[in-house]
Amino acid sequence: MGRITLTNIDRAYGKMKILHGINLDVGDGEMLVLVGPSGCGKSTLLRLIAGLDRPTDGKVEIDGVDVTNVSAAQRGLAMVFQSYALYPHMSVRQNLAFGLENIRMPKAEIDARITEATRMLEIAPYLDRRPGQLSGGQKQRVAIGRAVVRNPTAFLLDEPLSNLDAELRITMRAELAGLHRRLTTTMVYVTHDQIEAMTLADRIVVMRSGRIEQVGRPLDLYNAPANLFVAGFIGAPRMNLLPVKVRSASGAEVRVDGPGGLSASIAADGVALKPGDDATLGIRPHDIQLSNGGKGSVEARVTLAEALGPETVVHATIAGDSKLIAVLKQQGVESQGPPINLALPPERMHLFDAAGLRVAPR
Questions:
Q1: What are the chain's domains?
Q2: If you average pLDDT over residues 163-174, what whole number do you get?
Q3: Secondary structure class of 133 (helix, strand, coil)
Q4: pTM for the whole structure
């Protein structure tokens, strides 16, 4: 079992409040990823789960047992840090065995666990080396192995891949996903990288300023962001957000006008909107298409075209200063070239009211 429940968690340092009324339930065997910008409170929340810090208010439960005031050592959790936190004077084997020796586990059991972990993480060739003789990826595997040998109730991972180069991060993401499938153990994973969140998570928790903005499966957050913050944070490149004015609103449709002569009819719940209201139109860069002009398209001036082989990422402006990013399948679009026409399909649009909340489609 590895269910973790947080109820009304607050954390303040003096007069500075870091976490505000966090309620969260992590299912047994789930990979839950906490994501958000630096300083949003995700690492603080992970430390509270680990027992390395205590909440100012609220309750932490593991498998239904209140552990709010239980020490980290007694919670049965294993934490993997961004900095690896390996003992530099010990060999890999000694690093893996150290925690188990401290609890006086029989040597045969320690050896069996180390053998299984090194097989799973492919670090057997490095057992007699010290951390200073390892690459970054090898160190991270050892840090994960040290957690694996403990057979914990849950794994807590605090930005474990942030010190690796881009190519190695991709490899390690795949390895972590495979490890989670094999172990079927609860994992709570902190990152500021929303690509990591999208590729690893069963569910994502998007945080901002110590509050939870939205919780859901990766594609649910991508396709139905609850507000402008989530819309702009989830997805790469980020969603285009354009200021628009409501022309008309009925129960099932909202008509809006935007920059560059943009006009769109969006199937949405228009009950809370009225003509003249300010709103924000969102559309993903991958949903924009090159067109020959006409209804539903806008003229755009290309400021930068990034040719990436099968795709071209086009940075453009419409109506002078409104910025737009499109990911096009076509090649041959040039930076500082002649204006192009871009079609924005209304069925792929998102609409947000003046408060930044998504107007849900019908």
A1: 4-233 (3.40.50.300), 240-352 (2.40.50.140)
A2: 85
A3: helix
A4: 0.91
